[in-house]
Amino acid sequence: MLTNETRLRDFPTLTEMSYLNSAAEGIPPRVVLEAMAQYGKDKLLGMEGRPLHETQRAAAKEQLANAYGLAPEEVSFCSCSSEAYNLAALALQLAEGDEVIINDLDFPAGATPWLQPSCKATVKVWKMRDGALRVEDLIPLLGPRTRLLTVSLVSFFNGYRISLPPILDAVRKHSESLLALDVTQALGRIPLDLAGVDFVVSSTHKWILASHGGGLVGVPSANAEKLTVPAGGWFNLTNAFDSNRFERTDTKPGAASFSVGMPNYPAIYAIAAGLRYIQEIGVEAIDQYCLPLVRFCYEEMEKLPVEFLTPDDPDHLAGIIAIRHPDAERIYQALLAQNIHIMHHAGRLRIAIHGYTTMKDLENLIHALHNELKN
Predict the structure, then answer these.
(1) Are 19 and 228 spatial neighbours (Cβ–Cβ below 8 Å)?
(2) Domains identified in the chain, total number
């Protein structure tokens, strides 16, 4: 996907390491760093820089809308995916008797807002089997009281990629629930078809190669009334500076209500640049480039004495492979000493393969794992 020349130009630090941890932190290309530097230049203009900031926000909204398959007025920005979910909890105003379905492959951001004492709904857990979320296990959890199902398109934990159409079909047939989808581990890495999804969330510092400090929200206009956040602020209000501002609030509907205060313009500059970089290459091109690398890595690691957490199913693979080993901490430190960067947590090792990954990176990883597992 990248030539040696463009890879060196865009990602100079990758010449010094085999980086396989984009599921935690993406490596920004030079254009993202240049965009953040441009923010600094525009900020030095004081208030005269504000129109330039807004130009970047508009550009980022266009690119995000294109990525989500929505209109620009159906997307907005907040500070992170955790904030997006907590604001969604405010919007839904769940009551006694309501039910929310979470799952045990999800990142805490999507699960924990519904477990807070302030959430009056009953929480049900859709449990994975053999590393996979199966629709037949979801259907018995759905019912007339289900208000929300929240799930990730790709699991941060083991890289399992759900099949969205059967899940949407089950939700529509067996409930009147909204479906909230976290695409943090998919956006910028695999092609998206989000038709029918009611609420979309992503963070910004992973596969789209941008910065921290962004939450990417999508609310189709059909759900604007159901997902309007009743929060104080000003950027989310139509009458923040009107004469009646101390008497009542008029909240912007839907996605716009998730931007409650001053936008994080430094992050927005980075988001605009990161999404533009990804979209100019093409997510389909990234995915096609990565698919054989993912399969190679999986098949080579199958030869190792490790426990696989990622199911061996090509239809449910994305960019993440996860394994478990009792000596994971030592293995991780040994890899790090060789400038091979993966993720380690509680005995779990996670490898993430993006468009800037090379076959040499994976060969370095496999060779090092072979050596370490012989010790």
Answers:
(1) no
(2) 2
Distance CA 158, CA 66 (A): 28
Residue 220 and residue 362 share a domain: no
Pairing of strands 75-78, 199-203: unpaired
Q: State which of 279, 307, 342 marks the end of a domain.
A: 279
Q: Across 57-171, where does the E strand assignment appear?
A: 75-78, 99-103, 122-126, 146-152
Structure token pair of residue 89: 């909890």
Instruction: Tell me the pLDDT tens digit for each residue of 111-169.
Output: 999 999 999 999 999 999 999 999 999 999 999 999 999 999 999 999 999 999 999 99
Q: How far apart (Å, rounded) are the C-alpha atoms in residues 332 and 342?
A: 7
Which tokens sit at 146?
């289900």
Beta-bridge partners for 324: 307, 348
Looking up tokens 């696989």, which residue turns up? 308
Q: Could you tell me if 137 and 184 are in contact, meaning their C-beta atoms sit under 8 angstroms apart?
A: no
User: Is this model's pTM higher than 0.85 or not?
Assistant: yes
Exposed, middle or buried: residue 315 (CB in 10 Å: 0-12, 13-18, 19+)? exposed
Region of 370 please: left (phi>0), alpha (psi -120 to 50) or beta: alpha
pLDDT digits (tens, 9 = 90+) for 196-254: 999 999 999 999 999 999 999 999 999 999 999 999 999 999 999 999 999 999 999 99
Among 104, 78, 106, 103, which Cα is nearest to 91's?
A: 78
Q: Which two structure tokens, joined as six digits, stand for 176?
A: 């009147």
Does 256 reside within a domain? yes
**Rounded to whole angstroms, how far apart are CA atoms 91 and 229?**
4
**Non-local CB neighbours of 143 within 8 Å, separated by 6+ positions:** 99, 174, 175
CATH of the domain at 36: 3.40.640.10
Assigned domain for 375 exists:
no
Q: Which structural domain, as residue segments, surrounds residue 354? A: 4-20+283-369
Side-chain half-sphere of 238: how many Cα atoms within 13 Å? 6
Q: Rounded distance, CA 213 to CA 85, Å?
A: 15
Tokens standing for residue 10: 């865009």
